Hints:
This protein is 33% helix and 20% strand. The protein has 479 residues and is α/β, with parallel strands linked by helices.
Amino acid sequence: MKLRLAIVLISIMIFLPQKALAYDWEFAEKWSGRLLLAVEGAGEAWYVNPVNLERYYLGRPADAFKMMQKLGVGISETDFAQIIKSNPATAVKTKLLDNLSGQIILQVEKNGEAWYIDPVSRQALSLGTPLAAWQLMRAKAVGITNNNLTKIKNIDTPAGRPAPVYTKGLYLTGYSAGNATKRQQIIKYLKDNNLNTVVIDIKDASGYVLYQSQIPEVIKNVLIVDLAAVFAEFQTQGIYVIARQVVFLDPKLAAKKPSWAVSSVSGGVWHDASGSAWMDPTIQEVWDYNLAIAKEAIKAGADEINFDYVRFPSDGAIGSAVYRHLNTTKALALKSFFKYLDQNLADEPAWVSVDFFGLTLDSANTSYDLGIGQRLADARLNVDYIYPMAYPSHYSTGYLGYKNPADYPYQVISTGLKKAHPLMSKGRAKLRVWIQAFDLGAVYDQTKIKQEIKAVEEDSTVQGWVMWNARNVYQNIEI
C-alpha cells in the first residue's frame, strides 16, 4: 500500500506544473524597437531588439556604442537615401521603414555611420558619437516599471542553454539511434559532410516512448537503452542533439486514457483515415503528459526538444471528431498549448521547437490555419524555433503553376520562405526547415536535395535545415 501511494505521489509531482521563468513575449513585442527607462530604479536605459525581442542594457556611452556595433544592420547608400527622403513617402521608403522599424542601421559605404529608426516617428535619427548616441537613446526612452521590465528577457539572463546553432543535419528513428553500429556510421557521415545536427525520436507516431522512461504513466518500447549516453556520444563529437517528440497523434495513450482522446459523435474514440487515434489537443492532462516526457529528455541532456504533430487531425471523418474543451477556434486552442509549453519550459536548459505543415509559410500573413489549427503567428512568440515541413512532394498539382511541384524543390521552398518574411523576420522564433530526402513525386537525388539546401541557405531569416528520410538512408547523399 505504501509503495502504491509513493508511486502516486511521484506521479503527481512529475505532472505538477513547476514555476518557470517565463517571459511575456506578447508584451515584449509591443515594445519592439523601443528604448525603455527603468523609472523605479536608477534610471537604467534599455533597448528592445526587434530581431529577438530581448532587452539590451545601454549603460554608459561605451556600452551603447558597443551595442550599436553588435546590432547594427548594414544599409546601402541607395536604400539610405530612400529612408531620409522627405515626404510624401514612396512605396520603397514605406517598405524599408516597415522592415527596419526600431533597428539600428549602419551606412556601410560611409564609414559605418549609425542611425536609429524611431518606430514612433518613423524617422532616421543620427547616433553620431558614442556620447551623442547614448544621450539620444536616453532622451527617447519611455518610462517602465520594474515589474513590466522583468517581463522582457534580458539578453544577459543566464539560461543554461547551448549556444545557438545553424543546423545542418538529419533525422534518426529510435531503432537507428539505439544501434551502436548505426550511430557510428551516422557520426562518420555527419563529419564527412560537415553536418552538425541529429534529430532523434524519443516518442514516435506509434505513441511509444522509446527510451527507459521513469514516468509510471508512459507506454514504452525501449529502443534506446541509455538515452543520456546516446545523446553524449553525439555531443562529444560536436553534434547538436534534438529530441523529437510526437504529441497529439498517440494511439497508445488513447487506448490507455480514452477519456483524453478525440472522441466521435457516435461514441467512443475517434480514428483518422489510417485508423489511428489522436489525443484531444484541448485537454491539459495531455499537455502535462508530454511535458513530463520532454523534461525527462532534457534531463538526459537534449540540446533541444522538437514537438511534432502539434495540430488537430487533417484527414478522416473530421466532421465527426469531438473535442472536449474546444470553446474557441482550433488556432487559439493551439496557441494556448504553445504558451503552456513556454511557461513550463522557460527555465529548462534546452531550446523548444515545433513542427508545422509547409503550407503555413504561404498563409503566414493571413488568419488561415489550414483547418488544423496551425498558424505561425500563434507559435512565434512562445517557442524558439519553428520547423516548416516544406517537402515539395506534399504540394498539390498546380502549386506555383507546376504540374509536379516535386520537380522544383528550389522554387517551392524559396517561395514559401519569402512569403513568411514579413512575419518571421522579427520576433522570438526563428525558422528551420525540414527538407525532403526521400523519393516521392520525383527521385530525390543529391542534386534536388542541394537545390532545397540552396533555397534555405540563401534566406537570411532561416537558421538551418534538417533532412527527413523515414528509413534513415543518407549515405548516397553528399552535401
